[in-house]
């Protein structure tokens, strides 16, 4: 009986040894976006894994700073190589009626405050390696 108890205990130990937080370990990723050395507020930053998988995203604050999330705020990204896009566009000219419904839509348009090339993976030319202990990312964009 004692041998059976020890064997059952060892099996239980082996089965639970690998248990812990579910999913792979995430790396916190933060950084700053600048355009011609000026911080960019309100830009969407996306890191898309080169090997495929779920992207990590963030939005810049008034100082151009961002932190990435994949599943929950601030969790970061998985280790690996990423294609990076930065999109800076806002909708302007929208009119809202006093009751909250849409008003005249004839003046609604998109206003890009960053060059469109940075919003596309095939033209942004931005790549980033994500690894444990990495420094904050500097995404230096140019209007030229």
Keyword list:
single chain; 144 residues; alpha+beta; Immunoglobulin-like; four-stranded mixed beta sheet; 2 helices; 33% strand; globular; disordered N terminus
Architecture (CATH level 2) name: Sandwich
Largest sheet: 4 strands, mixed
CATH topology: Immunoglobulin-like
The low-pLDDT segments are: 1-20
Number of domains: 1
Q: Could you state the CATH homologous superfamily?
A: Immunoglobulins
The radius of gyration over CA amounts to: 23 Å
Q: What would the average pLDDT be, to the nearest integer?
A: 86
Estimate the helix proportion, in percent. Answer: 10-25%
Total strands: 10
SSE run: HEEEEEEEEHEE
Question: How many helices in DSSP terms?
Answer: 2
Q: Write down the CATH class.
A: Mainly Beta
Globular, elongated, flat, extended or rod-shaped: what is the shape? Answer: globular
Strand proportion, as a percent range, falls in 25-35%
């Amino acid at each position: 009986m004692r041998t059976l108890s020890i064997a059952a205990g060892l099996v239980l130990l082996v089965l639970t040894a690998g248990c812990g937080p579910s999913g792979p370990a995430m790396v916190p990723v933060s950084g700053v976006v600048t355009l011609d050395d000026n911080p960019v507020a309100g830009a969407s930053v996306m890191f898309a894994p080169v090997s495929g998988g779920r992207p990590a995203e963030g939005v810049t604050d008034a100082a151009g700073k961002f932190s990435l999330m994949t599943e929950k705020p601030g969790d970061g990204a998985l280790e690996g190589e990423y294609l990076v896009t930065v999109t800076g566009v806002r909708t302007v000219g929208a009119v809202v009626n006093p009751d909250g419904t849409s008003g005249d839509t004839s003046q609604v348009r998109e206003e890009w405050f960053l060059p469109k090339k940075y919003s596309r993976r095939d033209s942004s030319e931005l790549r980033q390696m994500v690894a444990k202990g990495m420094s904050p990312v500097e995404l230096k964009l140019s209007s030229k």
